[in-house]
Amino acid sequence: MPGAFIEFRGVRKTYDGRTEAVAGLDCRIERGEFLTFLGPSGSGKTTALMMLAGFEQPTGGEVLLNGQSLARVPPHRRNMGVVFQNYALFPHLTVAGNLSFPLTVRSVPADKVRERVQQVLALVRLEGYEQRRPTELSGGQQQRVALARALVFGPDLILMDEPLGALDKQLREQLQIEIKQIQRHLGVTVVYVTHDQSEALAMSDRIALFQSGAMRQLASPRDLYERPASAFVAEFVGQNNRLDGVLQETTAGRCSVRLGDGELLQALNADAAVPGEKVSAWVRPEHIDLQIGPAPADDGQAVKNSLRGQIGELVYHGDHVRAHVALTDGAQIITRCSRAAGKRLRPGAAVTLRFRREDCRVFAQQPEAGA
Ligand code: ADP
How far apart are CA 321 and CA 325, in angstroms? Predict the structure, then answer.
């Protein structure tokens, strides 16, 4: 296998000598890739990124760039652009001054500096803002300048830590698309840190999901969402419903699960759980078909599961309605309906929830995991 562009090899980091912020990270990042470290707060994402940037040193293992260890390479020699939420622009310099800085410290000639500054300003759509100071720019414009400053010296790699964290939702979503477009256009490699799973799904080629200093899954957004490798991933990425039970039988990746109220569920055994084991079964709101009253008699073969319940809350979300349904054993299930379907529903109504075996994934129950 050819060497990766970036490789974390058994990387560990402890700040206090006792707890590990990063606990044995193995991860390969390809050139041109947009890879996101996603996970809850405190799961080790920033620490991992800081070791790549060179602002922190691993206590074990090594980080490699093009097959070469970075152990003895100081941050300013790593040729990486950085955009951090707390890595502010120079307030006393103009936009042009901020953008020129990385070039003048690299002894780039003045005419070339002017040309590059214009190029990156066009890239982030801030032509005409050269003489503004950071305080005269909106939050979104400041982050565009920060991105331009990271790109101006033509690095192979850009590191971003929650760059959109301080912006409101609409602006954040707009900049997600812009950053992704610029990354594709330039073919530059990006390693991005966020705790926002929808941001990670929207932007990344692949996502490394962190929990407690360890990488739990490394996959494309689609695989992470549709084929989570553990209950933690199923719960953290997107909305999901959990049903607890005991595994009855399992063959060829399929299984049946006995729920608390005695109902038998048909599902996929995603975790090699064994009969008799306590398991959790996960099904997403959009995969559940909600019907008023009992299930129709002409049920097709595809739909294996049919559970009875009662509508508790109906929550209006503008483009859809979420119905919160209580099952007979007390479990709470959220389903997602169209506005039209939602209009026919009433709290207290008896309903049937139907979903396919293929949309229900089962994992052996772990003790409750923290970040
Ligand atoms: P994340 O980016 O996922 O929020 P961090 O990498 O910032 O996680 O933190 C991982 C763990 O390391 C946390 O428990 C945090 O408190 C600890 N930590 C991070 N930075 C430092 C530091 N400079 N000194 C001591 N502990 C730290």
Answer: 13
CATH 2.40.50.100 matches 239-294+301-364: yes
Smallest CA separation from ligand 1 atom 19, residue:
47
pLDDT band of residue 261 (cuts 50, 70, 90) is confident
Contact residues of ligand 1, CB 6 A cut-off: 15, 21, 39, 41-47
Dist. CA 241 → ligand 1 center (Å)? 30
| Whole-model pTM over 0.85 | yes
Q: Judge whether residue 366 has pLDDT over 90.
A: no
Tell me if 241 sits within 8 A of 259, measured CB to CB: no
> What residue's CA is closest to ligand 1, atom 22?
15
Tokens of 268: 């996929």
CA distance 53 to 168: 27
Buried b or exposed e, range 84-107, using 16+ CB within 10 angstroms: bbeeebeeeebbbbbbbbbbeeee
Nearest Cα to Cα of residue 83 among 135, 145, 21, 170: 145
Tens of pLDDT along 81-92?
Answer: 999 876 689 999
What is the pLDDT at residue 208?
A: 98
Domain extents in the chain: 6-232, 239-294+301-364
Is 218 a residue whose pLDDT tops 50? yes
Q: Could you tell me the distance, in angstroms and rounded to a whole number, from the CA of residue 129 to the centre of ligand 1?
A: 36
Nearest CA to ligand 1 atom 17: 21
Write the pLDDT tens digit of every residue in 295-334.
Answer: 766 655 556 899 999 999 999 999 999 999 999 888 999 9
* 56 CA: nearest ligand 1 atom: 23
- Is the CATH code 3.40.50.300 the one for domain 6-232? yes
Residues 228-242 have pLDDT tens digits of: 999 999 999 999 999
On the CB side of 72, CA atoms within 13 Å amount to: 1
Cα of 208 from ligand 1 centre, angstroms: 17
